[in-house]
Amino acid sequence: MKKYRMMKKIALLISIFTLTVSCFGKSDWKERKDWEKYFKAAQVEGCFLLYDLQRREYYSYNRQRVKTPLIPASTFKFFNSLVALEVGAVKDENEVLKWDGIERPFPQWNQDHDMKTAFKNSTVWFYQEMARRIGAKKECGTISINRNTATEI
Fold this sequence. Notes:
single chain, alpha+beta, 2 domains, 3-stranded mixed beta sheet, two-stranded antiparallel sheet, 7 helices, disordered C terminus
C-alpha cells in the first residue's frame, strides 16, 4: 500500500512538473490515449507530458488538462528536495533543521525536521528554508526552459 501511494505521488508530481515546460513551440504534439491505462491502474486523474529532445516532439496524455494552468502546491517539495540535495543546501536527507519556535497551524510542523519527516508532513517552513539556502539563482538555474526545449544545466 505504501508503494502504491508513492507511485500515485510520483505520477502526480511528474504531471504537474511537466506543466512547467512550454507546450506551444513549433514541435509536433502527439496525444497518447494508450497511457490512460496507467492512470486507471493507479486510480488517479491526471495528465502527462513528455518532450523528446531528439525528435523535437511532445507526447501527452489528457492534453486538455496539460494545457490547464495549475499551481504545483505540495508537489513542489519533490523538486525542491532534489535541488537542495544537488546543490548541497543540506548534507543529505538525514540532516535535521531546527524548528524556529514559531507556532504554525499544524502541530506536526512545530518540531525539528529532516527531509524525510518534512516531506511526509508537508512542512512548509522546512521547504521555505531549503529555498533560502538554495537561493533563487541556483533554483531557477537548475532547469533552463525555453519555448522549444527543456535542458538540464
